[in-house]
Amino acid sequence: MKALVKQKAEPGLWLTDVPEPTIGPGDVLIKVLRTGICGTDLHIRAWDGWAQQAVRTPLTVGHEFVGEVVETGRDVADIKPGDLVSGEGHLVCGSCRNCQAGRRHLCRATVGLGVGRDGAFAEYVALPATNVWVHRVPVDLDIAAVFDPFGNAVHTALSFPLVGEDVLITGAGPIGIMAAAVARHAGARHVMITDVSEQRLELARKVGVSLALNVAHTSIEAGQRELGLREGFDVGLEMSGRPEAMRDMIGNMTHGGRIAVLGLAAEEFPVDWSRIVTSMITIKGIYGREMFETWYAMSVLLEGGLDLAPVITGRYPYQEFETAFADAASGQSGKVILDWSA
């Protein structure tokens, strides 16, 4: 079968033939229809310092996908051939304290699909049945392909109550924009999102944010005044991984404000801990999705009319992966999809 492979320990990806995966008694074989390009895939393609530490070549990359079940192992009872499915890309051990307590998203031995084991940028992918999400209601294939990052957005946005709250989101990448859409849908009063890319801020406006602010020209404090806020934001969602964004967010929270942090910084950086303590600010780190509570929330949000269509800005045949990756790496796009169905 065809697959996008990190063949060598150097920049680049290679479209090549690899053996079709085999499945065990508890596994599911899936014909991939569409995949989403993630920032993780960009790191692996660029072969930066993180990728060099995390990845062993050769490796089929990719973890955001939707596909159709073609075969199930003998012990799989509730998934059948023909089902439309996406996959939870964090494979957990099942035996550690958190797994046994039902907190699988906190497993210390998590292995990432497309990072620690062969992934979904291929014609077929195999997964344990416990990692397969069956779409029981109709869903657009492009949206189904990005349930993984959509889950990151939902997990982050719904970490704290949002009804009537004023929300600040730093970073208008695809996940930040999805989080903004979720916050609006969940009842936030004002949602302000910041970035330095006008193209991405325009995408955020399409999902109905109260204010999309270019912080290269206007401060968050000025944005507060434009929205008529007097005491700061109630909830912050940090999606950029930028030190200046985190510091600005802390400086613009109300007393007792709550911050959920998904953005992954490249290195350590200082923050104003005195402000955090004296303003009694809560900071929560987010990694991945709660399994499978977040997945249920995603499906219900879509059933309830949440529209993520503006986030999808490009779709390419998988053979044009170089163009697709360049689009995704431009910093100007939303989610970029690879079509494997042809």
UniProtKB/TrEMBL annotation:
SUPFAM superfamilies: GroES-like, NAD(P)-binding Rossmann-fold domains. It holds the Pfam family ADH_zinc_N. Pathway: Amino-acid degradation; L-threonine degradation via oxydo-reductase pathway; glycine from L-threonine: step 1/2; Metabolic intermediate biosynthesis; 2-deoxystreptamine biosynthesis; 2-deoxystreptamine from D-glucose 6-phosphate: step 3/4. It comes from Streptomyces noursei (Streptomyces albulus). One of its GO terms (biological process) is L-threonine catabolic process to glycine. Belongs to the zinc-containing alcohol dehydrogenase family. DOIA dehydrogenase subfamily. Residues 174-300 form the Alcohol dehydrogenase-like C-terminal domain. It comes from the Bacteria. The record marks D148 as: Important for catalytic activity for the proton relay mechanism but does not participate directly in the coordination of zinc atom. Catalyzes the NAD(+)-dependent oxidation of L-threonine to 2-amino-3-ketobutyrate. Catalyzes the oxidation of 2-deoxy-scyllo-inosamine (DOIA) with NAD(+) or NADP(+), forming 3-amino-2,3-dideoxy-scyllo-inosose (amino-DOI). Binds 2 Zn(2+) ions per subunit. Zn(2+) 1 binds at C38, H63, E64. InterPro entries: ADH-like_C (IPR013149), ADH-like_N (IPR013154), ADH_Zn_CS (IPR002328), GroES-like_sf (IPR011032), L-Threonine_3-DHase (IPR004627), NAD(P)-bd_dom_sf (IPR036291), Zn_alcohol_dh (IPR050129). Its EC number is 1.1.1.103. This is L-threonine 3-dehydrogenase. The active site is at T40 (charge relay system), H43 (charge relay system). It is found in: Cytoplasm.
